[in-house]
Amino acid sequence: MRLLLNLIWLVLCGFWMFLAYVFFGVICCILIITIPFGLAAFRIAGFALWPFGRTVVRRTDAGAPSAIGNVVWFVFAGLWLAIGHLFTGVALCLTIIGIPLGLANFKLIPVSLMPLGRVIVPVDVAQRMYADQHAPTF
Prior knowledge:
By secondary structure, the chain is mainly alpha-helical. The protein contains five helices and two strands, in the order ααβααβα. It has one domain (2-133).
């Protein structure tokens, strides 16, 4: 099912959102001082291209620099990418078949707004990480 959803996603919106992230990533890498933002954009570009079966997990070791970087990212790129996800998600939700894809677009909005301090992992890895953190200790 994930493969089918990813293929439909790729055709309907994944490729265009991938290009938007790559565009912002290239601009950030050209400006040299913003290379960490470019790397984050490239990481999310892969997620935007093939999202089903993967999820975003907050890094526990991310500190103040990632919070400050997220503010800068929000102003210059995050807001525009989030608007792209919002419009694409609304357009996809207009059809019955597109509703799961539209909801996936809405789930990408938080990571498009604040990508630093997050990591993209397969869903089963995220479930194991959650289970390990919330396991009872005796």
